């Protein structure tokens, strides 16, 4: 059934980083733009009021305070996290998507990511405008405390002695000029998208400028079930509003567009529920009544959900007498640190527990594999003695092991990551760890893997499951790629006016994804706005 009589030029599904960038750019271009988000309030400014008692009387919700990041991560009340009947994965379902629950790490991908892994029109030279727009609009800092002091530096200093003095990395401003943000043998203070000692991100920037415009609206508590299609033309969306019985439809104007920014797990699900995807999956879905499009109207696109990626993660616990570990506390912060934050947005609660980050590439034949290390302020699980910190090691760009977004029997997205299914990938990450272990000073001791492990032992360790290895970091991306699932204008292949713009279209990046996703969304907005009617 087609949808008619609507007057929206653009409907955007999902208010994550990509959906918010598009909301701003589409409304700025004069389009009557509707943003639909299934979740509810997050930051104080969006109406979020969930918080520990010590924030009473402030204009802060728990989302605004960077140091509460890990407890947002674990506290399951209050609907910030997607419920299990929405997605089989740990993701944000709230205004801002996962950018409202994440650590706020904000790293610019190196030029090589665009040049190696993106198609014509998306090479580094083509991305310059989009990069500048994000850098201009989204504040970030590597010195978040408002009193100008750096806190919890004992772990940073120990890591610097190891990685810079020992392993020969260069200490740089990690998002500074092109020669420094190449992410090749560099070490530095983490960059966060915070402002004024509080979480910033696209909710505080792009969404606020969109909201100034009369031609922009956001509707929360609204879950899109499927795109309504008239053959190759999207005409609107079927929605389910929180608290309402049954479903209803919202239609676009003639010549309008629907853009899916539901994230790398949920955009593929929405496509499949709309009869666009791999016919074997669609056949199963229609048997359970979830696809109401007759099979002759399906759009056969096997790239929907294919080659989804997350970073394989290894936790290395490190101990030194010179380190003071620091644990954040949701309800009862150390009083001095609580007051420092409340009075001057300073101290440990002005950032999200990461104290250092570094990168290198491992060359394997013609392939270049990115590896990242991020240093946290405390140990974890079996290793929480004072003096312990956690080094989080990820494999990043250039890895060759991918999974697939399939759907469970209820039709809910279920990703697989298939880490190290290509053995070269385990070998690359193990090589990175092995190299830096050669430079470990006598004062710094790994606790959960022997310092003198051979490359083979490290390869086996990282690719054998344990609480410290084969972890997902929930940086899902790459599930609806440019040129196979969508074309280079981000238009779904087989459709005329349906687009996907979010982490789905982004190839595995060398860095944590948000900044790259926002840059890709800026580029997509340029391409979509340039399309001929
Ligand atoms: C715990 C955690 C920590 C992370 N830490 C970092 C970090 O420090 N730095 C970094 O760069 N990255 C980090 N990431 C990853 C990063 O947050 C994501 O890559 C990024 O948010 C993806 O953006 P997106 O626009 O693709 O979509 P998402 O952020 O996934 O947002 C999608 C939005 O769409 C909504 N939606 C989905 N389906 C529907 C529907 N059918 N109807 C209506 N609305 C819908 C969802 O509710 C959600 O709000 C982290 C992720 C997690 C989960």
Describe what is shown at a glance:
The protein has helices at residues 17-28, 69-74, 111-117, 128-137, 153-166, 206-211, 266-273, 279-287, 335-344, 423-438, 455-462, 514-529; strands at residues 8-13, 33-36, 170-171, 186-188, 194-195, 198-199, 216-219, 222-230, 233-241, 248-260, 276-277, 299-300, 306-308, 312-319, 354-364, 367-376, 388-395, 403-407, 413-415, 445-446, 471-472, 498-500. The chain has two domains: 8-105 and 202-299 and 476-529, FAD/NAD(P)-binding domain, CATH 3.50.50; 142-197 and 309-472, Cholesterol Oxidase, domain 2 (2-Layer Sandwich).
Provide a descriptive summary of the structure in words:
This protein has 533 residues and is an alpha/beta fold. The protein has 2 domains: 8-105 and 202-299 and 476-529, FAD/NAD(P)-binding domain, CATH 3.50.50.60; 142-197 and 309-472, 2-Layer Sandwich (Cholesterol Oxidase, domain 2). Helices cover 23% and strands 21% of the residues. It is built from 12 helices and 22 strands. It has helices spanning 17-28, 69-74, 111-117, 128-137, 153-166, 206-211, 266-273, 279-287, 335-344, 423-438, 455-462, 514-529; strands at 8-13, 33-36, 170-171, 186-188, 194-195, 198-199, 216-219, 222-230, 233-241, 248-260, 276-277, 299-300, 306-308, 312-319, 354-364, 367-376, 388-395, 403-407, 413-415, 445-446, 471-472, 498-500. The strands form 5 sheets. Strands 3, 4, 14, 15, 16, 17, 20 and 21 form an 8-stranded mixed sheet that branches. Strands 1, 2, 7, 8, 9, 10 and 22 form a 7-stranded mixed sheet that branches. Strands 13-18-19 form a 3-stranded antiparallel sheet, covered by helices on one side. Strand 9 and strand 10 form a beta hairpin. It is globular. It starts with 7 loop residues before the first strand and ends with a helix. Flavin-adenine dinucleotide (FAD) binds at residues 13-19, 36-39, 73, 90-94, 97-99, 101-105, 223-224, 261-264, 266, 270, 474-475, 502-503, 512-514, 517. Its cofactor is FAD. Belongs to the GMC oxidoreductase family. Pfam families: FAD_binding_3, GMC_oxred_C, GMC_oxred_N.
């Amino acid at each position: 059934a087609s949808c008619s009589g609507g007057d929206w030029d653009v409907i955007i599904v999902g208010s994550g980083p990509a959906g918010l960038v598009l909301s701003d750019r589409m409304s700025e271009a004069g389009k009557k733009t509707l943003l639909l988000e299934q979740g509810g309030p997050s930051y104080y400014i969006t109406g979020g009021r969930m918080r520990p008692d010590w924030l009473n009387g402030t204009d802060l919700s728990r989302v605004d305070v960077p140091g509460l990041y890990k407890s947002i991560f674990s506290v399951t009340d209050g609907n910030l996290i997607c419920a299990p009947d929405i997605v089989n994965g740990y993701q944000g379902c709230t205004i801002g998507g996962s950018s409202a629950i994440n650590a706020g790490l904000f790293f610019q991908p190196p030029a090589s990511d665009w040049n190696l892994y993106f198609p014509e029109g998306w090479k580094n030279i083509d991305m310059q405008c989009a990069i500048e727009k994000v850098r201009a609009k989204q504040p970030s800092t590597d010195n978040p405390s408002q009193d100008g002091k750096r806190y919890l530096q004992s772990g940073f200093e120990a890591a610097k002695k190891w990685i810079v003095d020992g392993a020969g990395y260069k200490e740089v401003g990690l998002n500074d000029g092109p020669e420094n943000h190449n992410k090749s043998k560099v070490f530095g203070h983490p960059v966060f998208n915070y402002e004024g000692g509080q979480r910033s991100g696209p909710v505080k920037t792009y969404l606020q400028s969109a909201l100034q415009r009369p031609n922009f609206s956001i509707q929360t508590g609204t879950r899109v079930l499927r795109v309504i299609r008239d053959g190759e033309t999207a005409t609107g969306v079927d929605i389910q509003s929180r608290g309402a019985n049954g479903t209803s439809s919202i239609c676009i104007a003639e010549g309008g567009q629907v853009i899916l920014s539901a994230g790398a797990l949920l955009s593929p699900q929405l496509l499949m529920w709309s009869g666009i995807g791999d016919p074997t999956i669609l056949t199963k879905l229609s048997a359970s009544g979830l696809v109401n499009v007759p099979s002759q109207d399906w759009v056969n696109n096997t790239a929907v959900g294919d080659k989804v990626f997350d970073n394989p993660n290894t936790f290395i616990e490190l101990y030194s007498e010179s380190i003071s570990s620091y644990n954040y506390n949701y309800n009862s912060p150390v009083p001095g640190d609580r007051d420092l934050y409340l009075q001057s947005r300073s101290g440990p609660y002005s950032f999200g527990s990461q104290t250092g980050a570094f990168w290198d590439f491992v060359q394997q034949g013609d392939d270049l594999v990115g590896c990242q290390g991020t240093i946290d302020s405390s140990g974890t699980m079996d290793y929480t003695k004072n003096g312990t910190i956690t080094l989080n090691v990820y494999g990043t760009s250039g890895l060759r092991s991918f999974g697939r977004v399939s759907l469970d029997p209820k039709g809910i997205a279920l990703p697989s990551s298939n880490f190290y299914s290509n053995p070269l990938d385990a070998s690359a990450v193990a090589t990175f760890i092995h190299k830096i272990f050669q430079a470990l000073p006598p004062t710094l001791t790994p606790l959960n893997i022997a310092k003198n492990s051979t490359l083979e032992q490290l390869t086996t360790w990282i690719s054998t499951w344990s609480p410290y290895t084969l972890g997902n970091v929930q940086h899902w991306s790459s599930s609806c790629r440019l040129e196979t699932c969508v074309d280079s204008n981000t238009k779904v292949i087989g459709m005329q006016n349906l687009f996907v713009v979010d982490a789905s279209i982004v190839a595995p990046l060398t860095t944590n994804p948000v900044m790259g996703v926002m840059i890709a969304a800026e580029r997509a907005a340029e391409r979509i706005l340039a399309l001929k009617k």
